[in-house]
Sequence to fold (270 residues):
Amino acid sequence: MSIFKDTLDYYSMNNNLTDSNIYYKTIFALSILIINLFANSPIAPIFLLIFCSILTVFKAGIPKKFYITFLSIPFAFALISVVFMAFFFGVGDQIWSLGLFGWGITADGLNRGVLVFFKVMGGFSALAFLITTTPVNRIFAIFNELHFPTIFTDLAILMYRYIFMFLDVTSTMFNSQKTRLGYTSYKSWMTCLGSLAGMVFIRTWDQGETSYKALAARGYDGVLAFVDNGESIHDVPILHWIVLVVFLVALMYFVYITGSINVIPYLIHV
Fold:
């Protein structure tokens, strides 16, 4: 049994929205991401977080456990930001003092921290919708069509490829160590983990050399070729465009009217 049974790559290729038009999903996700940046109150980002999560879990069919785990990474970083902003970025009187070095939480800092937290989570949920419902090769194809610098697109593709090679090698070695009674004690954990890290580094380095030779043998000249899957922005029905425009206009109005609404006692307009 693989230790990496559930992966982003698997779910992005096996969900209810995989075959939906990539252009429509990309415009939808980027539009609400930009609108989210203009929110002056956490209410609109909270709405976007809930809305995008419902789309991802219930419409696309991404497992709840995987989605929550996926969001836990930005959640942790955003939470750390709240703490730092509450303590060190606010102005005015303190509403709670740590009693050490004069550190304390100010209402202004707490307000800014809460706002940043929900804007991060709202924006990431929009990107998570796009990432978890779209195979990454189609996203890279969009980059290519938008004429992103070739070197960045190619590097991103190769890095993404090597992530899964790294996981595959790690999984094989981990299972091999387990069959030889590894990871049964603290000392065994440390020994096996060090051995695993060293061997994975060597194997991935060696595999990188092999992959480059394979590419060169197939005529690689520094530019990766993309396969056109036939999708076009013109394939999206006009009704879908109308629904998207109405939704985005309503969302912008929602952001505007909720810009000064408080959601916690100390929250004020920032």
Summary: The beta strands are 94-97, 104-106. The CA atoms of residues 13 and 135 lie 5 Å apart. Residues 186-217 form the longest helix (32 residues). The chain has a mean pLDDT of 83.
